[in-house]
């Protein structure tokens, strides 16, 4: 009797075990199907990085050649000019979303600021200019009319505005600006300082961990449009297979942010701290910096990114096209800028370099077509507002970065992308005469449509960062091929040492 009971219990145990095993197998099968990955291979990052980019008519190979041969050398020379070297930014703003005291303590996180007097043409922004009150225009000293028979009482114009009204008017202006701007601007803040970008290059600083991860998690999970919740908390990105379930505008938003993120990751991999202390008399006291192939694979290999790495690289090309289209659209305006630094020779060289680069951009055959977006009445208008507000939030999140150097470049590249979006999607930059297929793209320009100096500096430097990333991809591609040819160890052993 006891033996029969034991036998029955054993059978029940086996049935439960089999059911449990089937559940596990099914779950693993679902996971494998959802995140089908390519076997770890030294060229896996680039196997799918080819062909059409989607959402535009361009392909990867066309951009590679155009950027690496025509744009990259011109752009790198341009951003070394004095006008583009100095960027005014407030790095002391508090994080508006959460309390965060996890500051990067490494010396590579700190930046070197410079005084306004050391910035060529720093008074270009009229920083010390005090607006003349309306009443002052009609003072006796300002009046050229010397007619003593004029009755001032009869001609009196009351220019008085109460403090409360002035406050309300200021709010009106802030509202009007918010309707067109995609970023929070802080270059007029009291704590804003000039930074020489050439003395503070973007590179890996050691800033990582929960504080850094929270920045991008907040951007992707709370400020990017999502077709559905991601089943994996530690993987906040939108799956490429789900992008087709999003409308064009939301898809463009995600791909632009993802492309900027990919570009930043490539910069960190290409300027990685290889050695904190160099050896020998010729060693740099700032350490040895260079490309880190393993770090690049860790961030983009499909087997370590649930198959998404190559798609993230495609998004880099996508946002490159988007910002290049903004430069083309605003080209006639940018050609007319003075680029004043106080050095006539330098200023003329800068203007010539701008015209030369814009002529190359005009000749590109496959510009991004923004005219297909935000068409559809009030619903499209509401979506544009949401689109803009989401990006403004992202620009504010950059104030939560705990590393000053990372914050500097994060704010600059976000403002550059925000300026591009402003040019592309602000009605003030549209023109009935504009034609996407024209060599030059005319655009209406009025005084109030003028870009601020920091916007122009951010726009060109952000595009230069994207251009550099695409150029660095070619270097990593060459390194991977060389690594594959010379390495005797199987590739799966190389990947087994990496941590997702």
Average pLDDT confidence is 76
Percent strand = under 5%
Globular, elongated, flat, extended or rod-shaped: what is the shape? globular
User: Helicity range of the residues?
Assistant: 40-55%
What do you see in this structure?
The protein has 500 residues and is mainly alpha-helical. Helix 3 packs antiparallel against helix 11 (344-362), helix 7 (248-270) crosses helix 9 and helix 13 (404-425) packs across helix 14. It has 15 helices and five strands. Residues 19-41, 128-159, 432-439, 441-448 and 488-500 have low confidence and may be disordered. The two termini are 54 Å apart.
Short key terms for the protein model shown above:
500 residues; 15 helices; single chain; two-stranded antiparallel ribbon; mainly alpha
